Each structure stands twice: as structure tokens, then as C-alpha cells.
């Protein structure tokens, strides 16, 4: 049998080709042969029964009074903030002194561990227009973008070890709404996006802002459920906290995300379709409304209130008019 003269070369190149094919097989995207419907071919857990995102059906949500959420070090300015276009999203890492890393306790997390959860990173999902973009939906309604703040259970020493554990990871999710002004630090943040326009690019923020500047200002109203990561490997047993108060962002700032590219195409619609709830329970945090604050609740539409309340107002004012008239008579002059 004739020997192949290129045998040494073949021995060297074969493992490289095998590794390259594995890397390509493990890639994922949001459309085509690497889209969400094919993720489970390379990542088995993506076909699990407790996956995220979901549609938050307000009617089916069960009210539950969770302990108060406690945010620690969210107002601490990080030593560094790095933004990276990884081809799937804008990934943000923040560097802190060891004793100043942001963490969260209480709320739905209190049932998982008394130690709390520590901040790891945050990233974004968005759509090509304002009608789509968020991953979780509320009553089948999508927001134009969504922020995920990823946390690690402090019972585990690092993210990798927490990834496959029960309640090892938690995600704080925030919706975006388009407004005339933006929340917190998004003006400076989105101005830097042009510097990471292509996959693999990173930039450090010169004057980083604390984590508190990138989330909603009111955290009392939220939904919670047990789900998964919304990207491969789609690990389950992730505790989700979806806050109902949106983050404000301008159309111009949102368009800065839509101009980013990955693999020579615009990085857009990087959201996974909703997954079935199956046997899971969706919880709504119960909020006490103090009785002395009841007067501030708008029970009627302000525009129609005047016309609707005129008869009642007249009924109240009429006796007052009579009293004023009588006060001018001799009957009341002795008082």
C-alpha cells in the first residue's frame, strides 16, 4: 500500500480541523441555521422544560409577599467599566475592590441563600424597531429593549461553578421604554457604542458610573419565576426578577445599539422567542398600600373628571351659597 507523504502534516492539521468544526458547531445566533430553533442540537439543555424567556400573564401571576430586596454597593463607582461587542450583545464588566462589589439579598433570593447574590455582568437585548426587542413579554407585549443584570449565588466561588447548580444564578431584568430623556448614565454609555461597532471590539469608559445609574429607580414592583439563561448553554434553575418600572432611553440612544454589527451584519433582534411556562408558578410581589396614601391613587381619568363630578360639586356648593346669603339677614346678625 502506498504511503501518504503528507502524513506528518495530516497528523498536525487534523486536530485543528476537528477543533475548528467543534467551535463552529458550538456557535449560536438569532437567525438561520444557528438560530434559537437549532440551539438544542448543540446545547441539549436548551430543550429543557423550564426555559426563559416567558410571557408574563398578569392574570395567572400569583401574589406573594417577598421580603424586602436589599441592594448593597450599587452606588459604588467601579474602578473600571469595560464594554464589549461579543457578537451576541453588548457585554459590560465592572471592576471593584473586593469589599465593594455590588450584591443583592432578600426578595425571591432570600429563599435560595442567606448569603445573597453578587454582581457578575450586565448585557442587553434589543429589536430592529420599537415594537420588538425585549425577551420577556408582559401580556404578550414586547418592549424595545431589555437589560439583564446577572448575579452569582455567593455559596459558589465563581460563575462557572454556579452555572450548573440549583439557584446558582439570578437575573434582574429591566425593560426599556422610549422617552425624551434617558435614565441615569445612558447618554455617555451609548456615545461609546460606535467604538465597538464590530464583533470583538472593547472599550473602557473613562469616567464610569455606578451600577445604580443603569437600572430602574423603583424596585418595589416585580415578577419572579424560575427559568434559564436565555442564551446557550441555557442552564436552568435561574431565579428571574422582572421589574415593572421601565428604564427611559431616547430613540437616538436605542439606535446606537441597532448600528452595531456581528459577522458583517447588523446585530439586531438578539432576543430569544418566549418559552412555555409548563408547570412553573409565576409570582407577583405583593405591595402594601398604606391607607393614608389612598388619596393619591388616581381612581378616575383626569380629563373626564371635571364633567363627571360637576353634579356632586354643585350639591356640595349649594348649601354653602344658601348659608352665605342667610348670613346677610337679620336672623344671623346676633352671631
Automatic annotation (TrEMBL):
Gene3D superfamilies, per the entry: Alpha carbonic anhydrase (3.10.200.10)
Instruction: List, in alphabetical order, the Gene Ontology terms for molecular function in this entry.
Output: carbonate dehydratase activity; zinc ion binding
Instruction: Give the highest taxon in the source lineage.
Output: Eukaryota
Q: Where is the signal peptide?
A: 1-25
- Among its keywords, does the record have Signal? yes
What would be one Gene Ontology cellular-component term for the protein?
cytoplasm
Keyword Glycoprotein present in the record's keywords: the answer is: yes
Class in the EC hierarchy, top level? lyase
| Record-listed E.C. numbers | 4.2.1.1
Family annotation (PROSITE patterns): ALPHA_CA_2
Query: Which residue ranges does the record assign to the Alpha-carbonic anhydrase domain?
Result: 26-286
Query: Which keywords describe this protein according to UniProt?
Result: Glycoprotein, Metal-binding, Signal, Zinc
Query: InterPro entries, per this entry?
Result: CA_dom, CA_dom_sf, Carbonic_anhydrase_a-class
What biological-process terms (Gene Ontology) are attached? one-carbon metabolic process
User: According to its UniProt record, which protein family does this protein belong to?
Assistant: Belongs to the alpha-carbonic anhydrase family.
Name the UniProt record assigns to this protein: carbonic anhydrase
Q: Which organism is it from?
A: Drosophila yakuba
Amino acid at each position: 500500500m502506498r504511503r501518504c507523504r503528507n502524513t506528518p502534516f495530516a497528523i498536525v492539521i487534523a486536530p485543528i480541523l476537528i477543533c475548528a468544526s467543534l467551535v463552529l458547531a458550538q456557535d449560536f445566533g438569532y437567525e438561520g441555521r444557528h438560530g434559537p430553533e437549532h440551539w438544542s442540537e448543540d446545547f441539549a439543555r436548551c430543550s429543557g422544560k423550564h426555559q426563559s424567556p416567558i410571557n408574563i400573564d398578569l392574570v395567572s401571576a400569583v401574589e406573594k409577599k417577598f421580603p424586602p430586596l436589599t441592594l448593597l454597593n450599587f452606588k459604588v463607582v467601579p474602578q473600571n467599566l469595560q464594554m464589549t461587542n461579543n457578537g451576541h450583545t453588548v457585554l459590560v464588566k465592572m471592576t471593584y475592590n473586593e469589599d465593594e462589589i455590588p450584591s443583592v439579598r432578600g426578595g425571591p433570593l432570600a429563599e435560595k441563600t442567606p448569603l445573597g447574590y453578587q454582581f457578575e455582568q450586565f448585557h442587553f437585548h434589543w429589536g430592529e424597531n420599537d415594537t420588538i426587542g425585549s425577551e420577556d413579554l408582559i401580556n404578550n407585549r414586547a418592549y424595545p429593549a431589555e437589560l439583564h443584570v446577572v448575579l452569582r449565588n455567593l455559596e459558589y466561588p465563581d460563575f462557572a461553578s454556579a452555572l450548573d447548580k440549583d439557584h446558582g444564578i439570578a437575573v434582574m431584568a429591566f425593560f426599556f421604554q422610549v422617552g425624551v430623556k434617558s435614565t441615569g448614565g445612558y447618554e455617555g454609555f451609548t456615545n461609546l457604542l460606535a467604538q465597538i461597532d464590530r464583533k470583538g471590539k472593547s472599550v473602557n469608559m473613562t469616567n464610569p458610573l455606578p451600577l445604580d445609574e443603569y437600572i430602574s429607580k423603583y424596585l418595589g414592583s416585580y415578577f419572579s419565576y424560575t427559568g434559564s439563561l436565555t442564551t446557550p448553554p441555557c442552564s436552568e434553575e435561574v431565579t428571574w426578577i422582572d421589574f415593572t418600572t421601565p428604564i427611559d432611553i431616547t430613540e437616538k440612544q436605542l439606535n446606537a445599539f441597532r448600528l452595531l454589527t456581528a459577522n458583517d451584519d447588523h446585530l439586531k433582534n438578539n432576543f430569544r422567542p418566549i418559552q412555555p411556562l409548563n408547570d412553573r408558578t409565576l409570582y407577583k410581589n405583593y405591595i402594601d398600600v398604606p391607607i393614608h396614601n389612598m388619596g393619591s391613587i388616581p381612581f378616575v381619568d383626569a380629563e373626564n373628571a371635571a364633567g363627571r363630578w360637576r353634579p356632586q360639586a354643585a350639591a356640595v356648593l349649594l348649601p354653602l351659597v344658601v348659608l352665605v346669603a342667610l348670613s346677610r339677614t337679620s336672623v344671623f346678625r346676633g352671631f
